[in-house]
Amino acid sequence: MADLPTGLPIRLEPLVTRILAPNPSPYTHTGTQTHIVGDRDVAVIDPGPDDPAHLAAILAAIDDRPVRAIVITHHHRDHSPASRPLAAATGVPIVGATPFAAASDVGRSDASFDHAYAPDSVLAEGDTVGGDGWTLTALATPGHTSNHLCFALAETQALFSGDHVMGWATSVVSPPDGDMGAYMASLERLLERDDRVYYPGHGEAVENPRRLVRGMLGHRRQREGQILRLLREDAREIGAMVGRMYAGLDPRLVPAAERSVLAHLYDLGRRGLVIGEGETWRIAA
């Protein structure tokens, strides 16, 4: 991971430039990818962590071109914190995913949240941000987070998929903010589209997006089937299920696997298929 160039602008196509932030980890892969969209004027999608070197790299890539907006797919700490110093440096608004109102924060505390995220304008389904020869249209894709947005670039049939669809692994879905039912519905929605390429927040560009999305749906359904088979054998706690389901998993990723299994259990519970009793889950009678 450390061998990939951070801070270097890479032209992916005439309207899209990518800059990799220096924040590799088991959860971010090689790091967060910031995308600059446009030619004569630009938007910056997910400026990433509040890292001075990464901010300097973004500003150098912008190269004094007018910035129309700083666009945020969701409120995680590896995606949105640099929006604030970038806004201060450019004087342009932060737009995109909705923040949490104070009343809705109860029970949603999460170490991965950027609690200071405060956009100047919230974008909803179908809202657009545009410039000279480019338009970004918001697509609501909740699941990884409740406020996740993807952004479609109509001019080139590209989709900036944030963490909803990544180029290296499936997303962590961590309740209560993450919701497996919503995540699956959002994947189904993408399957109906004809996007040419996805530019994710982590990992390489996805050149055959519908095939990947079909595979992701199948993978999640396979996990659901594993859970149901294990619970038909016996009532179990999540840790025991993860031990059976994720053989050889990097120990650093066990907490993420446990959160995703919990998300599946909540979804199965809503559908009347399983019941949670304290830390133990069983098949519904």
TrEMBL record:
Gene3D superfamilies associated with the record: Ribonuclease Z/Hydroxyacylglutathione hydrolase-like, Winged helix-like DNA-binding domain superfamily/Winged helix DNA-binding domain
InterPro entries named among the record's database cross-references: LACTB2_WH, Metallo-B-lactamas, RibonucZ/Hydroxyglut_hydro, Sec-metab_biosynth-thioest, WH-like_DNA-bd_sf
Domain Metallo-beta-lactamase: 30-202
UniProt-listed PANTHER family: ENDORIBONUCLEASE LACTB2
Name of the protein this chain belongs to: MBL fold metallo-hydrolase
Species the sequence originates in: Sphingomonas cynarae
